[in-house]
Amino acid sequence: MGGGRGEKPLNADETLHLRVDALRADETMQLRVPPPPEPPARGGGRAERRRGARSAGRERAAAGTGAAATVAAVAGRVFGPLAPYWRRAAPYARRLKPVYPRPGRTGWRRWIPSWRQWIGAVLTSFGLLTAFLVTAYAMTDIPSNLNSYATQQDNVFFWSDGTPMARTGWVQRQAMPLKDIPQDVRWAVLAAENESFYSDPGISAKGITRAVFRTLGQGDTEGGSTITQQYVKNVYLSQNQTISRKFTEAMISLKLDNKMSKDEILEGYLNTSWFGRGSYGIQRAAQAYYGKDVGKLNASEAAMLAGLLKGAGLYDPTLSKANHTRAVERWSWILDRMVTIGKLSPRERATYKTFPEPLKSNPLYNTGAQSDYLVELASQYAKKAGHLTDKQFDLGGYQIYTTFDRKREKALTDAVTKARKEAKQDDPATAKDGHYGAASVTADGQILAVYGGPDHRKQGFNESNATTVPAGTAFTPFVYAAGLEHGVHKTRGGPATAVTPDSVYDGDDGVPVTTPEGPYWDRSGKKVLAHNEGGKSYGQITLREALAKSVSTPFMQLGMDAGLDTVRQTAEASGLLSSSMGPQVPALSLGSSTPSAIRMASGYATFAAEGKHTEPYSVRRITRNGSPVPLATPHPKRAVGAQVADEVTEALTDSFRTAHPEAAAARSGVSGKAGTTDKDTAAWYVGTADSVSTAIVVYRIDLTKSLEPLPLKGLAGTSANSVPYALWSAATGIG
Asked: DSSP string covering 345-399, please?
C-alpha cells in the first residue's frame, strides 16, 4: 500500500491502489484524491474576498445547535411560499448586505459602506419618505369647521343718511367677493406676499425648509409661506408656531390647491387676513385706514395696506416714526415689484411719489355711550324682523341701515345732558336717582331718536324703552279717542250713544264715578271719586276743552261710560303694549298704565297718521356682505277713524296753545300735552310737530333698592317751567 511513512507523496492526479482482503485477489478499488485548496493570494479581488466571507459564514451557520435548526424548519414552512421571490432577490440583497469590518480593508476604511450600500440607503430613504408623504396626504382631511376668527365678522350700523354709526362684534371684518376687489389691490398683495401664486402648487418647499430650520434652531418659525398656506393657517389652524402645525398646513394646502380655484383661495385670504387696527379683511382695512370701501382704493393705497400683512405692529405708519419709515420703504418696494411682474406700468408708478398717509384712527373702532342704546334697539329689531338667530347675528357680516336721525339724536342727547347737569347742581341728592327717557317716532313708525340713559355699560337698561312709571294724564287722549270712536253706554246692555268733542261732562273735583247701576265702589267698600290736579273744579265742561285744560274728572267718567275694555283696546290699537296696561279699574283712564317713551310717542303718532298705526321700527334695510336680507317691514293698521284722529289732534293742538301760547304763535301744526301722576312719581310731555311725535318722561328710581318710582321732589320743574316740555321743545326745534 503506497503512501507510507518514508514513501514519496502522491501527486493529485495519481491513482491509489488499495488491496482489500475481502475482495478477490484479482480486484482492486480505485480512489480519486481531490487536490488540496490553494491559499488565497494576498490582495485578491473584491469578489473573492466576499466569497470567502460567505464561506466562513456558512461554516459558522453549520455549527449551529439543533434548536436553531428547528426554528429554521418552522420559518421555512411559514415563509416557504415566498421562496421563489426570495431566490430572485437574494443575489441583490447579498450584495447590499454590509459585512463589518469589511474584509480586505484596513484601518477606518473597513467601516465605510460601499457605493452600492450608499445608493441603496439613499433609494430606501427616498422610498420611505415618499411612502410617508403619500400616506400623510391621503390621511389629511380639509377640516369642515373654520375657526371662529375666520368666520366671525362685525356688524355695522348706519344712520338714516347712510353714514356709519357704530359697529359691534369681537372681530372687525366684512367679507367681499373677489369681483368687488380691484385688480390693483389684488396684485399689490400678490407682489408683496406671493407673486407666483397662480403657478405654484400651494406650498413653498423653500419656505417650509427655512421654517423648519428656524424652528429647530431658534424655537420659532419664519415666513416664506404661500398665500394658500397663509389662508389655511387663518381659517383652519391655530397660530401656534410648531413643526407639526407647519406640516399639517402644508398637507392641507396641497389638498386645498387641488380642490379650490386660485381665485377662491385669494378671495378667502383677502377676507381673513389681519391688517391691524382691529380689522380683518381688505374691506375693513380700507375703511379703517382710509375711510373708504376697498373698491375705491388706488394702487398706492393698496400697496400701503399690502405692506401691513408683514406685521401691522411694525408697518402701521401712525404708531411711530420707525414704523413710518418701514412703511414707506415697503410701500415703495411693493410698487416696484408690481412694475417688475408687469402688473403696474412704469408711467403709473411714476405718479405715486408721495406716500398715502392713512387716517390717524379707525373711524369704526368704537361705539359711543349713547349710541349703545341705538345699537341695542336696532339689533333687537333686526333679529326679529330679519328672522335671524342670535348665533347668526353674532357671526356678523351684517350692515344694518337704521332709521335714526343723526341731527335729532344729537339735539335730544344734548338737551337731556344739559338738564341732568343742571339738576345735579341744584339738588344733587334728588338728581342722583333721576332718570330721563325720550323718543321721537314718525307718523309711519320710524324711530328717529331716543335717549336711553347716560351710560349703557353702567346702567344696563334703556330708559326710552322702560315700562316703569305711569303715563298719568298723558293717557287721556286714548280715552277721548275711545269715546269718540265707540260712543258710550248709559244703560247696561243698551245701545251706544254717540259722543262728540262738544259733549259735556262734570269737571268738578271729587265727583263720584258712576256706572249704569249707580256709584262705583272699590274693594274696600268706598265710593271711587275723580280728582283733578291741585283739587281744582271746572264745572260743566266739554270733552275737547277738558283735554285742552288737562281736566281729569270728565275722562275718568268717560272711560266708565265707553267701557274700560274699549279704552284698553283703543290704547293697544294705537300703539301701547298690552303688557304695560294697568288694571281694568276706573284709574285706568287716568294713566295707571306704564308705557315706555317709545310707545307713548308711537301712540300719539297714530293720531298724526289719521288714525292708522304703524308699529315703531328702527331698521329700514339689512344686507349681509352686500346681499339683501329679507326684512319684515311693518304695515299700517287702522286704529281709530280718520275723523276721530283729527278731533283728538285738534284737542291736543288746543292743549299746546293753551299751555304755550307764544310757541304756538310762532309755529303752526304743533300739538302736545303734559302728563302728571297722582303721587307725583312721573312727569310727561308728549306732542307732535312736523308729523314726528316725541315723548319725554322724567322720573326717580333708586336702582340700588328697587324699581318702585319715587316722588320727583321738584326734579321735573313746575307747570310754568316744566323740564319735560323744555326737553321736548329742544328735541323738536321749537324752543
From this structure: -HHHHHH--S--PPPSS-TTS---TTHHHHHHHHHHHHHHHTT--HHHHHH--EE
At position 60, the amino acid (one-letter code) is R
At residue 526, the 3 state secondary structure works out as coil
DSSP state of 178: G
SS3 content of the chain, % helix, strand, coil (to 5): 50, 15, 40
Q: What is the CB-side half-sphere exposure of residue 491 using CA atoms within 13 A?
A: 3
Full DSSP string of 43-56? T--HHHHHHHHHHH
Q: What contacts 183, CB < 8 A, 6 or more positions away?
A: 343
Give 192-214 as a DSSP string.
Answer: HH-TTTTTS-S--HHHHHHHHHH
Q: How sure is the predictor about 153, in pLDDT bands with cuts at 50, 70 and 90?
A: confident
* H or E segment to which residue 173 belongs: strand 172-173
| Those residues with Cβ within 8 angstroms of residue 353's Cβ, 6 or more apart along the chain or in another chain | none
Q: What is the DSSP secondary-structure string of 397-453? A: -EEEEE---HHHHHHHHHHHHHHHHHHHHH-HHHHTTEEEEEEEEETTSBEEEEE--
Rounded to 10 degrees, what is the CA torsion of 458, 460, 464, 468? -110
Give the up-direction half-sphere exposure of residue 314: CA atoms within 13 A in the CB hemisphere. 9
Helix (H, G, I), strand (E, B) or coil at 709: coil
Between CA 67 and CA 88 the distance in angstroms is 28
In sequence order, the 6+-apart residues with CB closer than 8 A to the CB of 38 are none
Residue 707: its pLDDT value, please? 81
Looking at mean pLDDT, say which of 212-226, 365-379, 446-460, 614-628 comes out highest: 614-628
Q: What is the pLDDT of residue 3?
A: 44
CA atoms of 528 and 537, how far apart (whole Å): 17
- 317: alpha, beta or left? (left if phi > 0; alpha if psi -120 to 50): alpha
Distance in angstroms (rounded) separating the CA atoms of residues 472 and 188: 65
pLDDT class for 211, splitting at 50, 70, 90? low
Do the Cβ atoms of 602 and 693 come closer than 8 Å? yes
What is the enclosing helix (H) or strand (E) of 279? Answer: strand 279-280
Per-residue pLDDT at 81 exceeds 80:
no
Residue 59 CA to residue 39 CA, distance in Å, equals: 17
- Residue 336: exposed, middle, or buried by beta-carbon count in 10 A (0-12, 13-18, 19+)? middle
In whole numbers, what is the pLDDT of the chain averaged over residues?
82
Q: Render the burial of 464-497: b for 16+ CB within 10 Å, e for the rest.
A: bbbbbbbbbbbbbbbbbbbbbbbbbbeeeeeeee
Q: Give 601's contacts (C-beta < 8 A, 6+ positions apart).
A: 439, 440, 441, 616, 686, 693, 694, 695
Question: CA 606, 608, 609, 611 torsion: positive or negative?
Answer: positive
**Alpha-carbon torsion 693, 699, 705, 706, what sign?**
negative
What is this structure's pTM?
0.66
